[in-house]
């Protein structure tokens, strides 16, 4: 049976993890590769690096991170942030990423998803969607790190992204991100029901019950979280045990 | 003993190379190189055929490398060198694929590549993530790999083997999905051993130590 995935996400800027972490056993807590190794050993199902500045100048730093991570962690790695072209995808895949996540560029030009999927296969093309509630049961996409409204309906866009070639949707609720109030379940369910591909729920996790809700009520195939793991509030093993106890199939070690 | 990862698509072989290098160092498996040069392929003691993306696209990328398909056939069919296919590389071992368009495989494992059709329509395609293996047959590359061990899958099509004896393991995804196949000196995994942590590394080490 396929297991539900837990994906710790590291926000990276200029090659360093931005949100603080308090892993006790790290020599350099700001080095993403060291943190990736800890998550690898802890039984995380995938890893996600998000390049939050993603300027042209620091791209090389991200490639170096992907390369170093792939040398030590034999598990799937997704990289997103500032991905604009098929060439960006190619460079990240060659550096060691397994999946590459489009965001703003796919909203501006959904055909880039098709181009990338035709060349590398949709299995490695993720479309990240940042959505904000604009009315009950209605969500709008925002781009450029959530600063720019687009007027585009999130459910409609999710369908488009998948038709164009995205093999997975990384869905972030902007209303919930950073609140620790739990995933936006109605949004997660609406997108998950609208597309055939797996949906990763993101934004708002504060407790282990929130992870359960994202899967059981939201229909997500995977859950992404940052601070609850980085700050050591919960371990990956605790999260998995809690979800398994709630009846969700998990990969236990 | 030398191992060549056949790089016919210019894809992401970095993590695969690192995984094979690491396990080759542990089991004394010799050098690991990445190449699409038919002469390098011909001189290898064992081969790894990766592959990502659509079956037909992979097949044509392979055919676009002059002399490469012939070198692979020579190595497997005449020299009897071990070959491990991974993901679409495993699917290329079959006779034919039906992803987007019909394309021929090498036919070393008789069978066809068809879209996964789970009995439960709620199951998502691609089949993406960790699934637990059900071992059907013992094999040297499976040593230490048991039913219940997890491997990382990401694919929408699967191999339907003609001879049940060629299937070593499957996973359940609304019905059986072929996970590991083998015949003579050819082995294939639908999952990514280089992404499957301890289970995957074990399988890689077994392949590098295998003397069929």
TrEMBL record, chain A:
Intracellular or extracellular location(s): Cytoplasm
Pathway as given in its UniProt record: Amino-acid biosynthesis; L-histidine biosynthesis; L-histidine from 5-phospho-alpha-D-ribose 1-diphosphate: step 5/9
Enzyme nomenclature, EC number: 4.3.2.10
Catalyses which reaction(s): 5-[(5-phospho-1-deoxy-D-ribulos-1-ylimino)methylamino]-1-(5-phospho-beta-D-ribosyl)imidazole-4-carboxamide + L-glutamine = D-erythro-1-(imidazol-4-yl)glycerol 3-phosphate + 5-amino-1-(5-phospho-beta-D-ribosyl)imidazole-4-carboxamide + L-glutamate + H(+)
Domain of life: Bacteria
UniProt keyword list: Amino-acid biosynthesis, Cytoplasm, Histidine biosynthesis, Lyase
GO BP terms in the entry: L-histidine biosynthetic process
Gene Ontology cellular component terms for the protein in this record: cytoplasm
GO MF assignments: imidazoleglycerol-phosphate synthase activity; lyase activity
Record Pfam families: His_biosynth
Entry keyword Lyase: yes
Active site: 11, 130
NCBIfam families, per the entry: hisF (TIGR00735)
SUBUNIT field: Heterodimer of HisH and HisF.
Entry similarity comment: Belongs to the HisA/HisF family.
Its biological purpose: IGPS catalyzes the conversion of PRFAR and glutamine to IGP, AICAR and glutamate. The HisF subunit catalyzes the cyclization activity that produces IGP and AICAR from PRFAR using the ammonia provided by the HisH subunit.
Protein name, as recorded: Imidazole glycerol phosphate synthase subunit HisF
From TrEMBL, chain B:
GO terms under cellular component: cytoplasm
InterPro entries reported for this sequence: Class_I_gatase-like, GATASE, Imidazole-glycPsynth_HisH
Glutamine amidotransferase domain sequence ranges: 5-208
Keywords: Amino-acid biosynthesis, Cytoplasm, Glutamine amidotransferase, Histidine biosynthesis, Hydrolase, Lyase
Pfam families (UniProt xref): GATase
GO BP: L-histidine biosynthetic process
Pathway this chain belongs to: Amino-acid biosynthesis; L-histidine biosynthesis; L-histidine from 5-phospho-alpha-D-ribose 1-diphosphate: step 5/9
Compartments, as annotated in UniProt: Cytoplasm
Name this protein carries in UniProt: Imidazole glycerol phosphate synthase subunit HisH
Organism name: Histidinibacterium aquaticum
